[in-house]
Structure formats: structure tokens, C-alpha cells
Amino acid sequence: MWVQLILLCFTLLSPAFFLPGAHGVSYTKDNKISDCEGSSGGFQWKMPFIKVNDKNYYIGHFFKANWYKSSQYCRYHGLQLASIETKEENTILERYISEIGLGNEHFWTSGTDQAEEGVFYWFGTGKPVGYTNWNAGEPNNFRYENGEEEHCLELWNRDGKGLKWNDTPCSFETYFICELI
Ligand SMILES: [Ca+2]
Ligand SMILES: [Ca+2]
């Protein structure tokens, strides 16, 4: 029993593991990193969600992926790439990411202007971006030598002032943030 539990916990934490959220396993709705737990009738998993009011965010930091693969990963698990609609949401995500030692990494959100250049919306919800936290000079739609421009919204601590918003090429591979639908 305990050997099985330990093996399952190990699997849960491995990079290749796909969260079982779309398959009937319940999620916790708190902001703690929880351990695996067993119960008399089987296993009761507690997933690491960060709760901000009615939203539950999941930080994808076991592997890096481009914006499309990140979105696919979220959707596969019954989630979607994150929207950030208030300063409170932004602040709590930033604080949490810093606390787990990843404050200098990049993180995808669902923000994009692929539909209309310069007009950002949250792909996860379809809503236009309202609250913003762009870094100075962003979004700049920088054009690279291969012709690719910047159409996807990441969080990035570019200049030591915290996780600000930046538009970057959607092909860039990095960590990501999902939210529970
Ligand atoms: Ca753009
Ligand atoms: Ca940019």
C-alpha cells in the first residue's frame, strides 16, 4: 500500500505526468503546495492550486513549452492558460512565483494579439485585456531576423522590478500558468 502510494506520488511530480483533472479527480482550492494523500477507498489527490478569490491558478514549472503546447497542456487537464484581470491576481501570482524561487523565469499567460495586432485579449476567456502590468516600452511587437513578431503575453522580470508583462514570440519555450475553468 505505502510502496504504491510513494510510487504514485513520485509519478505525480515527474515532468511527463499529466494531471488527472479532466478525469474526475477533485482539486483542492487553496493556495498550498500539498502532498499526495491516501484514503480508505483509494487515493485522494491534492493538487497545488493558488487561489485568488474565485480563481485557481496552477504554475506549470516542470517543463518548458511554447505558447501553443502550454495551452494544450492546460486544456488536456481541464484547465486553460491563465488570464490576469486584477492587480490582486497579478500580485499574488508574482509573490508565489518568487517564493518558490522562480522569480527570474518567464511564464506564459493566455494573453495574445494574434487575432489583431496590438489588440490583446485573454485567449482563455475571450475577454479583452483590461488591467495591465506591461513593462516599460511593452508591448513592442519586436520583429526578429526570421520575421517572427511578438504576439504572446509572458510574465518576465526583465530589469529586476518584478514580473512585468511582455509580448514575446509565441514559439518561445518557457514555463506557464494555467487556471481552473
Ligand atoms: Ca503583436
Ligand atoms: Ca516585447
TrEMBL record:
Keyword Signal carried by entry: yes
Leader sequence segment: 1-24
Entry-linked PROSITE patterns: C_TYPE_LECTIN_1 (PS00615), C_TYPE_LECTIN_2 (PS50041)
InterPro entries: C-type_lectin-like (IPR001304), C-type_lectin_CS (IPR018378), DC-SIGN_domain-containing (IPR051004)
Domain of life: Eukaryota
Keyword Signal part of the UniProt annotation: yes
C-type lectin domain segment(s): 52-179
CDD domains associated with the record: CLECT
Cited SMART domains: CLECT (SM00034)
Keywords: Signal
PANTHER family: AT17652P-RELATED, C-TYPE LECTIN SUPERFAMILY MEMBER
Protein name, entry field: C-type lectin domain-containing protein
Taxonomic source organism: Allacma fusca
